[in-house]
């Protein structure tokens, strides 16, 4: 809108206004996008102007970073200010005339380009003039000699960050219960009233007659105790709680600056080295306050090398929090919602035919611009005028059903009749791999735009999408009897049974049986008690992965066009099903009507009445967990509970009585859909024990 040009003219005649614009980056009332565009315009005027802007932004960022590390500052305001300035800095840096493309990390290996000058200033005190020297001394930062030669402002901030983390690591290595020294030091920064405290007198050691001199730190800490500053002490007792958010925000800024010096898709070696060096402290931060992951540790999603270090902590976070994080990063970089709405371009509308919705949709999606599809979808059926979200929902609904249409031979129904698995013989359709790629695109698009599909896949296929290895229990979805045989092999000594199994199996290929080796020379390798676990795993991989590997690869190629692998790994296979297909509805009355009772229970028993009362009180999510706990499936088949399948055909949900002992949890036998419910003495105990079992044992299997 001419702001950049206007500012350029103003600065030309009034150079002092340049610093005014730089200082505006700290004002959160001004739109960041607007400032970024203005500075981008100014930076393109000349090389010297470009370097001047970067140098000035680096100085302001450093000053704000040191303020953030000062515990007397307002955390929220300083954190937002620092990250805002760094985002603008990185944006201007990237659009420069000599963006790195050779993989060199200038901040790490000293590769000198003209832009490396932005990290240097002639007078350090101009950069850190607002930093309290006492605050820097107490944190053991390197002493700044204001008369020394050139230093780098951002490097000063990163050095301060490093020193903080080293200091905390030192304290963690000591007795964690004895952090009096560092706490007393931090207490000095709670406000200006404490910074020039007068020396405190010595105190008598409790329980002794003599008087002993305490250390200065201990005396000062004791002074606060005696002065009754209990609230301040409570705030300062845990140094990690006091500093974690501040340091994590600076770590985020450090990562952003490291990344902007690297080619797209590459992780800065310097940052990886930094995280590895401070691994214990960062994990301590996250364990104390997992929200830090979602607020500041965005780098985990972009660094597979680092993600694995924190994955167990991430997976332990609430599903809702991970969903929000997922979509926040999935849609990062897309046009802001406050930007002017642009009408749909006629060329961007997906025009499909109802009578050939699968093929026509495949054709238009394959030709569409992927980036535009990520931003939004507009669908119109040929010969119809309707458009909008209702049409989009209908399109996904019809298309998801067509994906598993037997006519295309892409997917086959699993043994339970409710889920689908890629068809190992899908090559009967000459376009099968293109169609699998299209199916991946549709599911990726649906997930991107929070649209639900009305199909469910086997657990093993969800695992393939997530990159999780399958195990022999997953075989049950396509062949329950074969899965039982594998389980039997694992549970029994096969040394003297004469099974004469080898590391090769016969498999059906278009109706003809072919022998397939599980590993090189497998036909001549006997299965023994010692190697049977390897045999079971290789058989599982053959049936669940190798037999459909081309189909899986094609599907993932399409899926990853819209959903990055690093993001989807935030979830497990059960959660992925919820994201794609939503929470299935469960009719409790239909459930009750199609339930059988055994081992002493009858419908009118008090424990059974309590059980159904509890089921009525459960949330929809908890009912799904209960169904999963007992049957191994989170879905009710078409036709209701009367059509639930067991290991040998139709098998109703069954509740069996078990003698009660204190703290005994319910158990289940999923092969026969049986809940083994102890005879609890009260409804409250029954509900408590049932919920513990659901939340701690709804996933995973053992032999009954």
TrEMBL record:
Residues 369-704 form the HECT domain. SUPFAM superfamilies: Hect, E3 ligase catalytic domain. It catalyses: S-ubiquitinyl-[E2 ubiquitin-conjugating enzyme]-L-cysteine + [acceptor protein]-L-lysine = [E2 ubiquitin-conjugating enzyme]-L-cysteine + N(6)-ubiquitinyl-[acceptor protein]-L-lysine. GO terms for biological process: Golgi organization; membrane fusion; protein polyubiquitination; ubiquitin-dependent protein catabolic process. Residues 190-212 are annotated as: Disordered. It holds the Pfam family HECT. Pathway: Protein modification; protein ubiquitination. GO terms for molecular function: ligase activity; ubiquitin protein ligase activity. The active site is at 671 (glycyl thioester intermediate). Keywords: ANK repeat, Cytoplasm, Ligase, Membrane, Repeat, Transferase, Ubl conjugation pathway. One of its GO terms (cellular component) is Golgi membrane. CDD domains: HECTc. The keyword ATP-binding does not apply. Its EC number is 2.3.2.26. Coiled coil: none annotated. It is found in: Cytoplasm; Endomembrane system. The keyword Membrane applies. This is HECT-type E3 ubiquitin transferase. It comes from Oriolus oriolus. The gene is Hace1.
